[in-house]
Amino acid sequence: MTTLNEYLAQKRLAFEAIKARAAAPDAAPRPFGASVTAEGRSGVRRIRIRDFQVISDSGPEFAGYDLGPSSPELQLGVLGSCVTHITLIQAADRGVPLESLTVDVTAEIDPRAGKAGFEHVPVSPQNIRYTINIVSTASAQDIAGLHEAVERVCPILNLLKHPQSIQSEVRLSTSDAAAEAA
Question: How many domains does the chain have?
Fold first, then answer.
C-alpha cells in the first residue's frame, strides 16, 4: 500500500510536468464542463462530468428521494475536494511531509431565505468554514506556509472570495405535447 508521502512524491513529479507544459509556447486555455439533466417525475439531477456521474436530489421534505447530496451540499463537497487537492499539490511542491489529511467543510442555510419579509437573507450557503486536519512531522512554519499557499491558489476558494461574471443562455425547444396543448 502506498503511503500519502509516497503519493506526494508522485504528485511532485506530475506537478513538475504540468508546470513545464504550461510554460510551453503553445500552451492555451483548456475547455471543460459538466452537464446536468433533471429526469422524469422524480426531478433527480444527473451530473455528468467526463465519464463520471453523480446523482443529486432533494430530501423527501422537498419532493425528493434523498438519493444523493443536494446542490448546497455538493458546493461544500467541491470546496473540500479543491482545498484537499491544492493542499496535496502544495505539500508535494514544497516537500512538506503529510501522514494524513482531512478537510471538513460546514455552512448554514437559512430556511427563511427569499421568503416574504426575508428577501435580504441569501439563499446560498453562508458562514462557510473549513478545517484542514493534518498529521505531519513538518514544522508549524511549514504548515502555515502551506495553508497560505492553499488560500492563495485554490480555484474554488478564489471563486467564492472573488466571484466572476457568469454568462447564461436559455434555449427553448417546443415539444409535440406542448404544441398540441397550445
Answer: 1
